[in-house]
């Protein structure tokens, strides 16, 4: 076991890694009409979006996100605002960035970004969603529900699970977030928030085991 895994037993590590892999869509990144960088605590989303812009994959991007209890101290002016500033620092021209500063959840990220694009006269046929690595599947399922006419491609920083743990610095929190996102993948279709996504039996078993072990701080009441 690597030295940074102090709060996770080896079997819990294996279970978390299984869920981590399931959350990623493994899409081939390709040229699209527009990209949307989904706001969060993870500035790596802005870094990855800027990198893909510089690769010439899209001419326009939207950063979306207001504030939440987990991001307010880090991004006091709002997630999208800080993401935009970071991307500009990385060489993305301000003219290529639209700002959506109000979204408070993933559904609003998608719906309000669509509105911002429409206001700018942009009706994309293909959209690249850039998110945290473990949020790819949920963002895909949400966008397919709310924006079904658009072809969705997902991307995130190309990090291994161990490297992502190191980048965040709190392995218990990361596993809590993996578990919480999988719960949303499972539960949100019942409320009309997302399309159904198949969850393999071994992934579901890993989820239930981690819930029993107390990785529950990001669960919602269901």
From TrEMBL:
It holds the Pfam family DUF218. CDD domains: YdcF-like. InterPro entries: Cell_Envelope_Assoc, DUF218, Rossmann-like_a/b/a_fold. Residues 45-149 form the DUF218 domain. This is YdcF family protein.
């Amino acid at each position: 076991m690597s030295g940074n895994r102090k709060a996770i037993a080896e079997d819990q590590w294996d279970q978390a890694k299984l869920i981590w892999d399931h959350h990623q869509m493994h899409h081939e990144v390709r040229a699209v009409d527009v990209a949307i960088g989904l706001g969060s605590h993870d500035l790596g989303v802005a870094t990855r979006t800027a990198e893909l812009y510089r690769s010439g994959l899209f001419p326009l991007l939207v950063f979306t996100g207001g504030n939440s209890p987990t991001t307010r101290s880090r991004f006091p002016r709002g997630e999208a605002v800080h993401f935009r500033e970071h991307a500009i620092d990385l060489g993305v021209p301000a003219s290529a960035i639209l700002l959506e500063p109000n979204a408070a959840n993933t559904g609003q990220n998608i719906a309000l970004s669509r509105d911002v694009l429409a206001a700018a006269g942009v009706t994309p046929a293909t959209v690249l969603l850039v998110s945290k690595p473990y949020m790819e599947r949920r963002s895909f399922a949400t966008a397919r529900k709310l924006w079904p006419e658009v072809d969705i491609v997902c991307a995130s920083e190309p990090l291994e699970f161990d490297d992502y743990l190191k980048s965040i610095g709190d392995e218990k929190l990361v596993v809590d977030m993996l578990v919480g996102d999988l719960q949303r993948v499972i539960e949100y279709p019942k409320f009309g928030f997302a399309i159904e996504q198949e969850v393999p039996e071994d992934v579901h078993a890993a989820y239930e085991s981690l819930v029993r072990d107390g990785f529950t701080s990001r669960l919602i009441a269901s």
